[in-house]
Amino acid sequence: LKSAAMEAHAAVRAESALRADEKRMASTLTVGFVVWPWLYVVQVGDSRAYFYSNEELRLLTHDQTIAQDLVDKGILPAEKLERSPFKHVLSSAIGADEALPVVTRVNINERGSLILLCSDGLTKHVSDDDIAAAAKTMTSSEQVARGLLRLALDRGGTDNITIIAARAMVTPT
Fold first, then answer.
1. What is the distance between the alpha carbons of residues 61 and 50, in angstroms, rounded to a whole number?
2. How far, in Å, CA of 76 to CA of 39, rounded?
3. How far apart are the first and last CA of the chain?
4. Other CB atoms closer than 10 Å to residue 109's CB: what's the count?
5. C-alpha triplet 37, 147, 145: angle, nearest 5°
6. Separation of alpha carbons 31 and 33, rounded Å
7. Measured CA angle at 61 (ends 59, 65), to 5 deg
């Protein structure tokens, strides 16, 4: 998965170099692959992956932003992260100067659990607590995605909002 992300990074950089307009191309990447009962997530940037199970929301990814890097290094107190002007400035992205893919594996063999992948367009306007509340009352993955989209749009929706939601419907053996 890391190799595939780096191939995408090289391809975007090569295409960007061919463009005369000098606009650099870059993108975040969060992709999930299921090989039952495991979910493998590869991430670059600040798009996120979550796993909700047993009334607990777990963030599976780690934002690759300048502000988060400063928090990780102990330079910026964690409580100041939300107000940092660097909160959405990427330190790693596909096509940027640096891409640092991270792969995470999680067991998803839990009935009614939820996998949620999203861009920062959602998390700029919707908190983890909001996501957990939506997951707790979900009737379908479509209902969760549509509800979270509506919430983000109602709160301003200033960026693209991408949401992929999938429920694990495990049949007990």
1. 8
2. 32
3. 31
4. 13
5. 35
6. 7
7. 115
Q: Which residue has the tokens 């998965």?
A: 1
Reading the chain (173 residues) residue by residue, the pLDDT tens digits are 999 999 999 999 999 988 877 778 899 999 999 999 999 999 999 999 999 999 999 999 999 999 999 999 999 999 999 999 999 899 999 999 999 999 999 999 888 899 999 999 999 999 999 999 999 999 999 999 999 999 999 999 988 999 999 997 765 55
DSSP per residue over the chain, as a string? Answer: -HHHHHHHHHHHHHHHHH-TT-PPP-B-EEEEEEETTEEEEEEESS-EEEEEETTEEEE-S---BHHHHHHHTTSS-GGGGGG-TTTT-BSS-BTSS----EEEEEE--STTEEEEEE-HHHHTTS-HHHHHHHHHT-S-HHHHHHHHHHHHHHTT--S---EEEEEE-PPP-
Residue with tokens 């796993």: 51
Residues pairing with 38 in the sheet: 35, 107
The sign one gets for the Cα dihedral 101, 104, 57, 172 is positive
